[in-house]
Each structure stands twice: as structure tokens, then as C-alpha cells.
């Protein structure tokens, strides 16, 4: 029956392109992770908010699931259409709509990628700081409340999205927020849609806050004897210095990156650091950070001074997850994403490593430790039921530890298919009931990315 | 009938203190503004979240309006119980619950005031930056998404609240957010309650992000020939310098402050500036800002170097609104609160002054111009219908101008009784419908601060 309705799609919902070839369906039916793939019935490529409205109305009328799709780089099965239906690929909505350099503001369509955005602003002296490792879309980043290496200085998406246009599940178009620096006008709808993982509506435009490129930027690598020492150093640095970036990469990951990118970093737990600001203050910050690293037994503190070596360093860091996958062709990713109050980080890292060892898994640990956010990442054959169950137990122990310390089950990836089950443990029943009521209010028919996030019981 | 039910209040709702003396009812039935006072039937002082739950359940069962009350410093009639009922005074819930200096986090009850909080943290090297002019409660500041002079650097309440405990209109207690730096777990309930003006629930605890006290702080006053020049200077400073504070105070206000505080500032449009950071970077910033001021015709650029003169300067700035009131005893305040994209600020200031002149009103202009947020403030006899209507027209023209430039009708005060009518003009009908649906979902009986904010039609 769903098939029959989708047969109509060739013509009706506006003039949006509809594709149903095997390869395109497959590409929209899976991600990098262990979650089981499931094909959509069709992939639709809207080119405007009005087309999105038509498609959503069509889907609502016929009770067809609708899954917004950016580039599919999310890490918890977010884009997998577990109930089939339409995968709504936003890649054709990739225009930069309005750029106001003097106001540090840009408004874009959701299919714009972060590299596309930063290229477009290159000559302006401005940039958009949020930088997940993948070249994700601004729409996907907004929908997952993504962050990345720059968050310790500039915050996550929620801190950088000023306003949205969203097509709700009944086809209504809602505008939220605006271009002023701040506002106390009415309920904060913007914040509600940021991080909603396609479950409350389709985002069709995003107003972003931009940053000025700092006068001076210096990058460094600090190599440590063990991961706990690196974690402790990160905590003291964050407390003392207005750090630009502080990223932890463990031995295993460094080795994988070297193999994948042809780099020659020493395969030891390493902090990748960046300092930014005026020349004088950067020099002060660097001196202080170096001292703090040495106090924790850091053996080498190396500068990447020219911009090429610096770019290479961050390129290497960004490709860490991909490098790990490349090491294990055919396997899929499972990654934890807890975030703890910063003073709890060394304990959390210790606990994670201990847990992995106890279960006998070789995993990599890396992350945005300046935020107290780290990933324990594993590659796995998703058909190996035993490993899958054991890894889920590891995952669950790591989350339980983080929650007991006041942390969150997901610092940046979002709930997707994998983390919804921890929501009640994190917030208590009442908050989850309220989240479900919000879902019910905004998507009464349940067409928007069903089974994901807060809607995890609906599988 | 309401009276009869409230007769019960002496004993039932927990053991919370209930007061019904004339003076206390009056104190909870008005604010500083032109909005007509209206008495509550009783003032109740809860001492715990459990007591709040009992009171809210009682109010819900008997359909009694409930208006949370901090110190009543809000500027749009927020706390006036226009339908009577219970004024829920949070002043006895004023404990600091948990202080984690290493995580830059504190958790407080809503009745804690900002000066109480900062005093409690004095020896830690940390402070909480959000600073409305009044010594408001953290609960009231959260409920209005308040900001102040520090917002240009540290953001408004929404940027600094990490989590909440809220008693919903049916007595359920919901916990939102947490202590991690960031999270992508579920819908952002925290952001929904920040700025909800007591219309969605009663906030019973707030987790705040703290800041380290900067190494060096320098304050300065830049005196300008006219207000437009001061506005233009503010725009260039914000674009070029990581400024700490940049406040505009016009002639009239300076004169009022001098009279009220015994200061001797020159009665000319003035920017009050603050620079903060490392010593070297502050020096650089000051030099650049001074140059930018002189480019706009600034006649004097004066430092307040020692900490006493600096404190006096900010004390003077903070008391500007009170000083204006003191000049006109017996009168009440009406203030605009628009916030525009920063490049639109000089035009907006020009338009505001021109509008005031056209209508023949002497008003003061002052504000947090680093955010593009300024207030045109008037004192008025609220019984003078003609003046009231004319001033409402001024207010409306100023808002209409700001909205046309991509701004908001309220940068920091909130909607209260006065600004709800601009919501549709600002966001369009659909967003306002959605806001009303949220109100309906969370407060179906309509007991929570009825008639305020989004609920403005319900008078
Ligand atoms: C190598 C690698 C490194 C990564 N590093 C990071 C990192 O450092 N930090 C981080 O936060 N993440 C990271 N990620 C995860 C991923 O990049 C982010 O989750 C990103 O935000 C996903 O964007 P996307 O365009 O791929 O969205 P998709 O994966 O296509 O979609 C993600 C979710 O958003 C929804 N969505 C997409 N577009 C819209 C729209 N227009 N309206 C409504 N909903 C929409 C989808 O339905 C889905 O639920 C990494 C991933 C990889 C593969
Ligand atoms: C001289 C002066 C200067 C000011 N300067 C500024 C400024 O620079 N920036 C700025 O933003 N504001 C400013 N204000 C306005 C005012 O200080 C702020 O709005 C402040 O946030 C109000 O706090 P309060 O404790 O007085 O709250 P109240 O006025 O008591 O209450 C405000 C609103 O919050 C609700 N509320 C209070 N407590 C709770 C709770 N626990 N749970 C749920 N809802 C609650 C109330 O119902 C009401 O709707 C100024 C006011 C004055 C008088």
C-alpha cells in the first residue's frame, strides 16, 4: 500500500526530483554504524521550502514516514528509514541566502555543507566555527546539535543558531528567532528544533552566528606517557587558559591516522592543542599550557607553526574516525559519546579503558576533552551477535558511569537509534514524558523520522 | 468563590507561609511600570520544591491563578496578578545548593539574588556574569531571559543556564539539562523554560555556568557630541575588539544619574566601556577602541583605573533607570527594549530620537548597545490617558522600525503585559500559534501567570 502511494510520487509533490534506483535507495538506507540498514521507498530532492511543504503535506495525508537526510554522516542510525517511506535529501537546497558580515550573520539553506560555507566566506575575515569531523550539512548539524573541536571556545550548534525556518509535520512553515544578538520574545522555538533529529519538522533555513578569524593561531601537539595523564593535563589547561581547541587522541588512533593519512605522529596518547587570539595573549597561553603539560609528565610539546602543518594536524584529527574504519574494512562503527563535567574526565577515561579491557575489546579513545566529551570507538561486524551484545554492555557501562557523574549520554552525536534508551536514566521519567508530549503535539501522525530519539519506543 | 477557596490556604498547601496583609498584597500587585496594579488574593512563600508542588496542585485543582514572584523588578507588568489568585514569592528558596568551582558550575534555588550569588563566590575567583540593573533573583532572571551590561561578552541567561528543575502546572517535577558542557540528548527543555515568564511552570532550581574573573579589567568613559556618533562608535568597537561592556547613556540620563548618585559625569552622550582579559591584550584593545571613538568625534576618553572608580561607574550605570524614576516621583516607567542587528543600531537610535521629538516627549535613551539593544525610557502618569496612548504609539513605532530591520521587540525584558501584541509582527502567525499550542500543552487549565507573554489574548 505504501508502495502504491509512493507510485504517485513521480508527479504530485511539487516538481521535486524523485529517485528510486537501487544504489540511491541503498545510499540513503544506511550509515557508518552498526545499526541495521533499511531502505526508503523513495528519495526525494526538494529545491525550496514550498516544495518541502508540499511533500510533507503529501506524506501526512498518506501517513508516509519522512526522514530528512543531509549527507548521512551521523553516527547513531539517525537517517536510516526504519519504517521505509521517503528519504528527504536536502542536498539541492544548498544556497547561501543572506550574508551580513557587519552583523556576523549568515542565513543558509540546510544542504549547505560546512566547508562550502567557510569557502564562501573566505575573503570576509569571518568563519563558522562548528566543525564535526565529517563535512556535514548545516541542516544535519543543526538537527543533531553537532559540535566538534572548536566547541570548547565557540560552543555547539545550539549556541550558534540564531533562527530557523521549519516545515512542521502538517506542512505549516514556522519562522523562529531572528537576527538580533539576543531576544526575550516568547518561547525559544529555535532551541527546541536544534537537536530534534528530524523528529519535529524539516528545517529549511538556518541563521547562523559567525566569528572573526583570530589574529594569531598556534597549534601544538603534546605527547603523554598514558591517557590518564593527557586527560588530567586537559582539565588543568581548560581551567587556566582560554584554549581554542584541546583534543585527545589515543595510541591506537594515532597509529590508524598515520596509516590512513601518511603522517608520522608518535603513536602515544596525544593532546592536539590550538591557541588563538592576539599575538601576545597567545604567547602567554602557550607558555602556561606547556608548563601544565609538563607537570603531567608530557614528554614532548611540539609546535605546528606554519599554516600548512597546522592544517595537516587538524585534517588528521578530523579523519580519526574514518582512519579507524579504514583499518577494518567491511566492519561498522559503534561509538560512545558521553560528556561529563570537566573535573570528572580523568576518572571517566580511566573507567572507559578499564571497561574495554575487562570485556576484552580493543577500542580507540578520542575526543573533545576540553568539553569533557570523549568517544570510545569500536569497529564491529554487525552480524556477530555476541560481539554486538558485549559491546552494547560496554557502551551501557560507560554511559551509566557518566550519568552518575552528572554527565550526558550524548555530548554531540544525538540519540538516533542507539541512545534513546538512556533518556530516562539521564533526566528521569517526567522529563521524558514531557518530551514525548512535545513530539505528539508537533507530529501527531508520527511521520517525522519515526522511531528515533525521544520516539525510541516506536520501533 | 476564589476568596472562599483561598480561605483554605491558611492550612492546606503544605506548611508554606501564607500572607494576606494589605501592604504585602500591594507590594505583590504592582511593579515600576505604567501597567495597572491588581492585587493577588494571597502571597505564599514556599520553602522547597515539594511545597511548590503541593501549592501548584492545589491551585490546579481549584483553578486558581498562580504568579511566581522574584523581587518584582521586571519591567512589563510580569508579576501583576491581573486575575488575582496566588502570588508565589520565591524569596525563601534562596539556598546555594551545590558549588563546583572546578567545573565552573553552581546550582541554586530561584530566590537567590545575583549579588548574593556573587558574594558567595567571592573567594573562588569565579563570578556569574549576567547583571540586570536591579538586584534581581536568579529565578526571575531565568524566567525573563535577562541580560545586562555583560551580555556582549558572556551572553544572556539562556546562554548561561545549563539545567533546571521545574514544577509544571499539574504539579509534576521535571529535571532538564545537566552539568556537562554540552549535550545532544533529547529536546532542549531548558531553553524552553528560560524566558517563559512564569507561564509554563515554576522554576525551583537552576544550574548556572560560571566565569573566571579576568586577569585585568579597565573601564573608560567616552564622551560624544551627539548620540548618533556614540552609536556609530559602539558599532565599530564591537566589530573590532572583544569588548567586555559597551553601554550608551544619553545626556538626560547622565544628568539624572548625577542628581541621584552625586556623580559629576559630563552631561553628554557617553559610552561606558569595559575591557577585560590579559594585561597585554587589554592594552591593545583600549588603544584600538580609543582610536575608533576619536574617529567618531569623541571629545574625551577617560579611564577609571582604580577599582573604586570603576565600581562607581558601573553602579551609576546600573542605577540609571532608578535615577530617572527618582527625577519624577509618583510617575511610572514605560520603556522600549528593542534589539537590532548591530549595523542597524545607529539608524535605530536616530529613528527613536526623531520619533520621540515628533510626538513631543522627553525620553531617555540608554542601553546595551554592544548587543544592538537599547531602551527609550519615559516616566508617565498612568492615569493620563492621552499621554499613555501617545507613548504607546511611540513605543509601537520604535518596535515596528526594529522589526523591519530584522530585530526583536524585546532584547531582554520579555513580553509581560506590554509586548505580547508584537509577537505576530515579529515571527508571523504560525510561530505564535505554535507558542500558544505549547502553552496549552503545558498549562491546559491556564493557571500559570495568565494573560502574560504568549498568553496575551487571555486578559
Ligand atoms: C568522520 C566523522 C567525524 C565526525 N565528527 C563529529 C564531531 O566531531 N562532532 C559531531 O557533533 N559530530 C561528528 N560526526 C557526526 C556527524 O558528522 C554529525 O552528526 C553531523 O551533524 C551530521 O550531519 P549530516 O549532514 O551528515 O546529517 P545526516 O546524518 O544526514 O542527518 C542527521 C540527522 O539530522 C536530520 N536532518 C538532516 N537534515 C535535516 C533538515 N534539513 N531538517 C531536519 N532534520 C534534518 C536527519 O533526519 C538525521 O536525524 C562525525 C561523523 C563522521 C563520519
Ligand atoms: C533599575 C532596573 C534595571 C534593570 N536592568 C535590566 C537589565 O539591564 N537587563 C535586564 O534583562 N533586565 C533589567 N531589568 C529588569 C529586571 O531586573 C529583570 O527582568 C529581572 O530578570 C527580573 O527579576 P526578578 O527577580 O525581579 O523577577 P520578577 O520581576 O519577580 O519576575 C519576573 C518574571 O519571572 C517570573 N518568575 C520569577 N521567578 C520565577 C520562578 N522561580 N519560576 C518561574 N517564573 C518565575 C515571574 O512570574 C515574572 O513573570 C531592570 C529592572 C530595573 C528595575
From TrEMBL, chains A, B:
Residues 36-213 form the FAD-binding PCMH-type domain. It is an enzyme of class 1 (oxidoreductase). GO terms for molecular function: D-lactate dehydrogenase (cytochrome) activity; D-lactate dehydrogenase (NAD+) activity; FAD binding. SUPFAM superfamilies: FAD-binding/transporter-associated domain-like, FAD-linked oxidases, C-terminal domain. InterPro entries: FAD-bd_oxidored_4_C, FAD-bd_PCMH, FAD-bd_PCMH-like_sf, FAD-bd_PCMH_sub2, FAD-linked_Oxase-like_C, Oxid_FAD_bind_N, Vanillyl_alc_oxidase_C-sub2. It comes from the Bacteria. One of its GO terms (biological process) is lactate catabolic process. Its cofactor is FAD. The keyword Flavoprotein applies. The keyword Flavoprotein applies. Keywords: FAD, Flavoprotein, Oxidoreductase, Transit peptide. PANTHER family: D-LACTATE DEHYDROGENASE, D-LACTATE DEHYDROGENASE, MITOCHONDRIAL-RELATED. Belongs to the FAD-binding oxidoreductase/transferase type 4 family. This is D-lactate dehydrogenase (cytochrome).
